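Recap from last week: sequence in, structure out.
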Amino acid sequence: MTPRIPLVIDTDPGIDDALAILLALASPEVDLRLVTTVHGNVDLELTTENALRVLHLAGRSDVPVAAGARASLIHPQPERAGHVHGAEGLGGVQLPPSPAPTDPRPAVIALAELLMDSAEPVTVAAIGPLTNIALLLAVHPEAAARIDRLVVMGGSATRGGNVTAAAEFNIWSDPEAAAAVFVSTVPTVMVGLDVTLPTVLTVEGIARFAAAGPVGATAAAVLQQYLDHARGAYGVPGVVVHDALALTEVIAPGTLGTVRRDVVVDTTLGAGRGQTLVDRRSVSASPTAVEVAESVDSAAALDLLVSRLAGLDQDRG
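Predicted structure tokens:
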């Protein structure tokens, strides 16, 4: 039997973050041991409450949730993404409150202790701004060195940005943090807009897991506002599953085709702020190089997502 992958999700729920958490919970390949929250799509209090409620929806209130950074490292995040995710982050859907309290430890402490105490290396999926991860690198480098793989949803090599012409939202929210992460020696995969934008969950796919039971139906309801946004922002008849695709790479390594590249983040205060400058001239041998996702089997990724989300209700039946 293949050992399960110990996993931490660092997140700012967010509609697609909620989908990613549910995908992880529905996947026997991974053992979700901790969720840490960060500012981003909405304020920290809401991202933390949303994480607790999503876990409770799936019957996994036993997974601890630790609250992290409420602001970027240096410059304030110019705006949240309530216009995309709804004012409270979950598309206007009110999930039942969780009976579980927030872990009393700050996120960086909880993450460092888990990494140091784990008998095997831990994968970290960072699907929000990278503030918590940059703080871990700065304050607990010995713990960060025990990360098996850091899978980041963020950035773009060839497609420009989605919040500005140059920048993807998660990187733009804290470019200084992203810059620190992308020049570290932690083995890092960048799952950016190059592979997420072509991976569109259709209305038909959503209907498949919506029909499976209450968890799937609730997930579909949460997605409705995101569906409306995707039509206007990307011109696609479905949901671009940014964060869930990063979790797919965690669950099924090799879904994405990656190439080792040097990545630099623009931390200036001009029009390029938050851009990920990916050197695509050659494969990099640098110890700080990033595995940049440049190709994707979108059909396989979407089939995994839909079947696993439908399975959440089947397992509870």
